[in-house]
User: Which sequence fits this backbone?
């Protein structure tokens, strides 16, 4: 059976299921599976759901070295609330970061799209490749209504770049459902969400948004055309707009 056939069969099995049912099925059927978490609102919901299904579930995060203090605070709160969680914190290769910032400056990403892509590649894409290596499936907190780019995404799909399954349990959830879950279950969340940051990435590349702005308008705002998350890029560092 091919991976695509397996994924088609998983997609049929999980059609119409709740996020908890999707997670329960996936944690039972994929032996090497992990949640990619940047500790945004959707990610902490998934962490809480996963920890209730399996307390030692595997979660990884990318510490780019440029995160906000509030992000480290929520990571610490999650570690405290779910002590058995296997939280893997991935760092970029030190030598690559040292070379990049000594050649191009600490805030090189503001100077050109090429520089920003280089920074995202070194701080996110390469560590993400190491984190997903050897997995059968990875889980994301993507939701379909976040941007038009994500409208065609499904609960279970093939990640063609990594040749593994990609699971999006919250794909059909609204922002309101996410926050209802956080409040009802007393889930720790990033304090920046209370300051109009719907999407939180690296500190120098993320800002609060104004009422009526697109949810992702706070990312890389100085580039009007590239606002897809650095996590959802191809293995050679290109940003993917069609799918997350
Ligand atoms: S989001 Fe900004 S600081 Fe973070 S890796 Fe990308 S360019 Fe670098």
Assistant:
């Amino acid at each position: 059976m091919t991976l695509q056939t397996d994924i088609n069969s998983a997609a049929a099995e999980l059609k119409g299921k709740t996020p908890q049912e999707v997670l329960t099925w996936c944690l039972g059927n994929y032996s090497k599976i992990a949640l990619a978490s940047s500790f945004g609102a959707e990610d902490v919901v998934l962490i809480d759901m996963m920890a209730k299904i399996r307390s030692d579930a595997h979660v990884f995060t990318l510490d780019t070295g440029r995160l906000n203090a509030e992000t480290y605070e929520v990571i610490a709160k999650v570690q405290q609330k779910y002590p058995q969680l296997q939280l893997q914190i991935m760092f970029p290769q030190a030598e690559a970061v040292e070379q990049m910032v000594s050649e191009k400056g600490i805030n090189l990403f503001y100077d050109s799209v090429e520089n920003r892509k280089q920074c995202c590649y070194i701080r996110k894409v390469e560590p993400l490749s190491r984190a997903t290596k050897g997995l059968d499936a990875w889980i994301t907190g993507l939701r379909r209504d976040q941007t038009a780019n994500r409208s065609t995404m499904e609960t279970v799909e093939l990640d063609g770049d990594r040749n593994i399954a990609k699971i999006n349990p919250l794909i059909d959830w609204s922002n309101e459902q996410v926050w209802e879950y956080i409040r009802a279950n007393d889930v720790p969340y990033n304090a920046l969400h209370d300051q109009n940051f719907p999407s939180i990435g690296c500190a120098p590349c993320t800002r609060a948004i104004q009422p009526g702005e697109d949810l992702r308008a706070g990312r890389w705002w100085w580039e009007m055309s590239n606002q897809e998350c650095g996590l959802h890029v191809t293995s050679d560092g290109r940003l993917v707009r069609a799918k997350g």
